[in-house]
Design a protein that fits this description.
This is Endonuclease. By secondary structure, the protein is an alpha/beta fold. Helix content is 31%, strand content 20%. It is built from 16 helices and 16 strands. It has helices spanning 19-28, 54-64, 140-146, 154-165, 169-177, 190-202, 215-218, 232-235, 256-266, 284-288, 291-294, 344-347, 362-365, 375-390, 416-432, 438-449, and strands at residues 6-11, 30-33, 70-74, 79-92, 104-110, 117-118, 132-137, 179-184, 221-225, 237-244, 247-254, 272-277, 306-307, 319-320, 326-333, 351-355. Strands 1, 2, 3, 4, 5, 6 and 7 form a seven-stranded mixed sheet that branches. Strands 9-12-15-8-16 form a five-stranded parallel sheet, with helices on both faces. α14 packs antiparallel against α16 (438-449).
Length: 459
């Protein structure tokens, strides 16, 4: 790594400590810059790298900052949210209802993760209170050290950025929204997909399989399955029975999610993903309690501090918050009756993404036991069956058969009749129970299932 001085631009996004906008800039890979009081035109650049006059700052944006330059987004003096590189020249957006007050833009690629980084290696110990200005580091090594970038060379850093570009649409969605619920028909591989997404997030897009993660990366992923008897004491904190010299007493202990969040706080520059399987089966308001507030993406971090129910029993750490580096994935089945009672306040805090059977057929290819030569027939049978389900009165796509049911094929020696009689037919009978033409409908579904030919997959 070179030891020459490194020039870095400080560009303020939204003003001091506007963390919500910083997160948006990081996720969208765009710097949002204001100066809306100034007309957009070509301003003369006089070469000044730390101008105070607004027109000269805009001129610096237009003519002084180049593609490939480093840029950091400041929080407060000598603290920054992330480090990035400029990837496209300055441009002005005339019409953008979502961020109209920040029409001046740069496209960027983040180099560091998102966090609160103290700039201990910066040569200047005070910077000007301006939107844009130049900063100087003694070396590239010093710059990367401040942002905990561990690459040995800049080329490795670029490779990491390429990995991030290849992240799935689901990975990008959760980075942007923090809370994601995968919903769909049973067997569509929502839990499987949640694990894939979590693997992507903790590895910064470099890995998709749990098996490929290091032990440290695996420790950044948490998992729990909700059920009707699950409650606040399991999830956040509560009194637990303990034995002390033969005497039974109670001790305040952290629940699984609170422990997970504490670990994330200790590692602020790593991403942590917590998966809640069948999230709708638990009594959400009872489990989360006051964390309804903290789970909101707009109140992550210390802004979302809450006093927990057992705080009066603690001498320290009476307040709790969900760190900014914690992401939550929930899964739910659309036909589960408990979906109808899912708390509306919680719905507002999650992004909902429907997972269809066609989206996750790739699980067959990723399964070492599934014969690749058998995939086309499995795909055709499943597609035909699900089209017939959609065409059946009283049913719809929520009742589709997911590809995970077909993972049983290797264990039954690809006997499709056995898969039908022992696994699919009982489920479909439950779906059709009470309909006036139950037998005829089941026969039509079986005929579709036995059709190995291709069909229109748009249904």
């Amino acid at each position: 790594m070179e030891n020459r001085e490194v020039k870095v631009w400080k560009i303020s996004v939204g003003g001091t400590n506007k963390i919500k906008l910083h997160k948006k800039a990081f996720a969208n890979k765009i710097l949002y810059i204001g100066f809306t009081q100034i007309e957009e035109k070509d301003y003369h650049f006089n070469g000044e790298k730390n101008p105070r006059k607004s027109e000269n700052q805009v001129a610096l944006l237009q003519h002084g900052i180049e593609v490939g330059d480093f840029v950091l987004v400041p929080r407060t003096n000598l603290y920054a949210s992330f480090l990035a590189k400029i990837t496209k020249p300055y441009h002005y957006v005339k019409e953008d209802d979502e961020s109209a007050e920040f029409p001046r833009r740069f496209e960027i690629e983040p180099i560091s993760q998102f966090g609160k980084f103290k700039l201990k290696n910066l040569k200047e110990k005070q910077w000007n209170n301006t939107t844009v200005g130049e900063l100087t580091y003694g070396s590239l090594n010093d710059l990367y050290d401040d942002f905990n970038v561990k690459q040995n060379t800049e080329e490795n850093s670029v490779q990491k950025l390429e990995d991030m570009k290849n992240m799935s649409k689901y990975g990008k969605q959760i980075l942007n929204s923090y809370n994601l619920i995968l919903h769909g028909a049973p067997g569509t591989g929502k839990t499987y997909l949640a694990r894939q997404i979590a693997s992507e997030i903790v590895s910064d897009g470099q890995k998709q399989k749990w098996e490929d993660l290091s032990d440290d990366e695996k420790s950044q992923i948490g998992f729990v399955q909700f059920h009707p008897s699950y409650d606040y004491t399991d999830f956040v904190e509560g009194l637990r029975p303990v034995s002390d010299k033969g005497q039974i007493g109670f001790k305040l202990q952290d629940g699984i999610f609170k422990k997970f969040c504490k670990k994330a706080k200790e590692n602020p520059n790593k991403k942590f993903v917590f998966t809640i399987d069948e999230i709708n089966r638990g009594e959400i308001s009872k489990i989360f309690g006051e964390l309804f507030f903290s789970i909101d993406p707009d109140y992550r971090g210390k802004d979302g501090k809450v006093t927990t129910q057992y705080a009066n029993l603690r001498e320290t750490d009476k307040e709790f918050y969900i760190p900014e580096n914690v992401y939550i994935i929930g899964t739910m089945n659309d036909i589960d009756r408990s979906v109808d009672t899912f708390d509306f306040a919680m719905r507002r805090r999650f992004r909902f993404v429907e997972i269809k059977a066609a989206d996750t057929m790739g699980m067959w290819e990723n399964n070492d036991k599934f014969d690749n030569d058998k995939i086309e027939e499995a795909r055709n049978r499943l597609t035909n069956l699900n089209k017939a389900i959609s065409d059946t009165e009283g049913l719809n796509s929520h009742y589709h058969i997911g590809p995970s049911y077909f993972l049983k094929l290797p264990s039954v020696n690809y006997d499709y009749d056995l898969l039908w009689s022992d696994y699919l037919e009982p489920l479909l009978k439950d779906y059709l129970r009470g309909s006036y033409d139950e037998t005829d409908s089941l026969d039509k579904l079986k005929d579709a299932y036995n059709n190995e030919g291709k069909t229109d997959e748009t249904h």
